[in-house]
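Severity: low
Component: inverse-folding endpoint
Summary: output formatting inconsistent between runs
Steps to reproduce: submit the following structure tokens with default settings.
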């Protein structure tokens, strides 16, 4: 037959089961099409389409695009609902996003407050790490194209540490936007050393380049 439905399997009421009882390597269920393969379910249920592997600890479920070069070569799309990726593995690499050549983009187009990108670790001993092996000047960047950036350690016994431990490595706090903007270092600490600047070997330079009246270096203490 040359029609679109050259072979058709239809049940007027019941279902269709396809079972392969072979146990040897290669005795599989193979579906091959020179055109597309469509799998559609009209069931309104949590298991509308269910793909299940139950063969042993070495089993895998793989989605493999062999020749696609587009940015959406494998596309997971939910028109109105969410997408949930969950792992029950208790290991450091329970969920891995790995680009062997290009980059990884995580983007949210929401304009509603609260519809954010949240990266959360609920374990009391776990960490959230962002690591790069890049040697460029801006190897790691936190960039807000419009709003601000908050880094908050909400624990009375823990601290925020910024460390550059390589020879010649610097930590730079730079505000190069509006002329009316400022850089503020604020502390609500009540200790004798609420704010401390310490160098273990080198010096500390404070430079004011302003030339107008009032563009001074002001040091004020109530003690």
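Observed output (run 2 of 3):
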């Amino acid at each position: 037959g040359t029609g679109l439905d050259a072979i058709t399997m239809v049940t007027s009421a019941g279902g269709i089961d396809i079972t392969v009882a072979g146990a040897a390597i290669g005795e599989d269920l193979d579906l091959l099409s020179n055109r597309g393969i469509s799998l559609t379910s009209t069931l309104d249920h949590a298991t509308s389409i269910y793909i299940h592997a139950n063969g042993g600890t070495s089993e895998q479920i793989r989605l493999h695009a062999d020749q696609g070069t587009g940015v959406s070569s494998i596309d997971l799309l939910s028109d109105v609902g969410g997408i949930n990726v969950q792992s029950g593995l208790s290991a450091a690499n329970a969920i891995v996003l790995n680009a062997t050549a290009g980059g990884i983009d995580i983007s949210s187009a929401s304009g509603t407050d609260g519809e954010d990108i949240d990266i959360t670790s609920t374990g009391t001993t776990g960490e959230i790490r962002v690591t790069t092996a890049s040697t460029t000047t801006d190897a790691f960047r936190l960039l807000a194209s419009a709003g601000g950036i908050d880094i908050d350690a909400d624990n009375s016994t823990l601290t925020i540490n910024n460390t550059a431990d390589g020879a010649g490595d610097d930590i730079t706090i730079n505000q190069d936007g509006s002329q009316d903007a400022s850089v503020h270092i604020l502390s609500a600490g009540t200790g004798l050393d609420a704010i401390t600047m310490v160098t273990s070997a080198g010096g500390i330079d404070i430079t004011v380049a302003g030339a107008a009246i009032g563009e001074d270096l002001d040091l004020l203490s109530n003690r």
